[in-house]
Amino acid sequence: MSQSDLFALLGIEVETTQSSTKSKDKKNVDVKSTASKATTAQARKSETAKQKYSTREGIRKMPIPVQGWTIHYATHTFEVEHYARQLVDMGDETPLEKVKDALWTKVPEDVRADILKAREKQENSNDKVQSETVEEEDNLDIDEDSGEVREKNIAKKEKKPEDLYDGDMTIAMIEQAFAYDYFEFASSEAISWRVDRENKRLFPAVTNGKWGAYSTGTRRLYWKWQDYLKDTDKPPIGVVAGRQGRLFDVREDDFMRIVAPSQLIRELDIPPEGFHLNLDKIPGEFLVQTVAFFKHFAQQEPPVEAAVYITWNKEKHSYALHCPRQRVSLAEVRADFPHFLDDPDTRIVVYIHSHHLWPADFSGQDDANDKAFAVYGVIGRLNLPMIDMRFRAGFNGQHYEVSAKELFDFSDVTYSDQFPLEWLACVERE
After folding, report:
1. I want to staple 373 with a disulfide (CB 3.0 to 4.6 A). Which of 314, 349, 395, 403 is the partner?
2. What is the pLDDT of residues 374-420, one digit of tens each?
3. Whether the Cβ atoms of residue 191 and residue 204 lie closer than 8 Å to each other
4. How far is 102 from 416, CA to CA, in rounded Å?
């Protein structure tokens, strides 16, 4: 019999700015007048740059550098870099340049185009005026002895294009990252920003009263509620594990405390939910023998259920197939405590019982019993050419479906209707 025939018999499916140059030839210049003009020009230049970001929507498009800037929300302070890494899901171990590259792909296209245009303009300007210089604002000096006004020995510097807020991410992107922790930031209309460029600080505020959580910072996990209460240096967001099997966000200030179920904790990973076999697969011969054993009792009149166990011995590093002493009937099988469990290195990893002529569906009684950390199997329709089987893995009543091919190794396995005859003495009909 071919392997495909064996699979069919077992019911296993096979998957077939620019700036101008100032003249250096001026003489007898009025010091006060020169300084005043320079101040006025600088103010005009700064005002030109700020006009681009004067509206709410314009501010949200403002590029902000990742490094050196901080966000101040109520009484808390946080670095822009933290939320930059959070937005692209990169931890502290990731080089900052890689973070910036990832952020650049998230910058809105229109803003990205403006930044690229400004950078190109600056590069062209620098290339054009490499040999040119600009004077300092206060470029004159007075000789105290002679009273003569003369030019200082000024330092040379390259001219730059129109001042521009350059950076790695936009304020809108910061809002997006903040919204994972503070849902009020999900609505840009609810947020206003003040930008302190001189000190590299950002000040967001909820201006229309929506939601109203006024804090910022990182989370800290507490396994016990009392641990949170005893903490004298609480973070703005505490996360407390509850007996219900859930996590709770705790936000607190001098005015109040609110505890609510956590919605999303970006600092945590997403575990791969479900079943994963850590050991080698179970020999496929075990399943072949089990089916033959179950068929023997399914062909009797009336048909009765039966059960087998598959164990793993840690010391021997091997599987074994066992038939426990059992009392069986049409709708039930009750097994005695197996002697092999006296060995502390041995444990049952798979429980399998039959439903003889019935479908391989887990019954209510099965759901009530299958609570241990193990794999459970049911084999039915044993009177048909294509039998029915189901496996599930779980604990505490939570189960995940598992296919026979995930559990058993069928390489070089052939069909057989044989099973150990001594197993018959272990079965007592009721």
Report:
1. 395
2. 999 999 999 998 999 999 999 888 899 999 999 999 998 888 899 99
3. yes
4. 58
Cα 118 to chain center, whole Å? 35
- Per-residue pLDDT of 216-264, as tens digits, reads 346 788 888 998 999 888 878 889 999 888 999 998 888 889 999 988 7
- With 0-12 / 13-18 / 19 or more C-beta atoms within 10 angstroms meaning exposed / middle / buried, residue 181 is buried
Calculate ∠ Cα 189-194-200, nearest 5°: 135
- CB contact burial 262-283 (16+ within 10 A = b; e otherwise): beeeeeeeeeeeebeeeeeebb
Q: What angle do CA 316, 319, 320 make, to 5 degrees?
A: 110
Checking phi first, is residue 226 left (phi over 0); if not, alpha (psi -120 to 50) or beta? alpha
Burial of residue 211 (CB within 10 Å: 0-12, 13-18, 19+) is middle
pLDDT digits (tens, 9 = 90+) for 97-131: 898 888 888 887 777 787 777 777 777 776 665 54
Task: Compute the distance between CA of residue 384 and CA of residue 386 in angstroms, rounded to an integer.
Answer: 5
Predicted local distance difference test score (pLDDT) of residue 268: 74
Contacts of 174 (CB under 8 A, 6+ apart): 64, 71, 80, 83, 202
CA distances from 207 to 114, 181, 229 (A): 29, 18, 31
d(CA 308, CA 350): 9
Closest CA relative to residue 376, chosen from 358, 402, 406: 402
Give 279's pLDDT tier (boundaries 50, 70, 90). very high
Q: How many CA atoms lie within 13 A of 108 on its CB side?
A: 15
Q: Is the pTM of this model over 0.70?
A: no
Q: Quick count: other Cβ atoms within 10 Å of Cβ 32?
A: 8
Percent of all residues in the chain with a pLDDT value above 70, rounded to a whole number: 71
**Which of 335, 366, 352 shows the shortest CA–CA distance to 291?**
352
What does the block give as tokens for 22? 């100032």
* Burial environment of residue 316 by CB neighbours within 10 A (0 to 12, 13 to 18, 19 or more): exposed
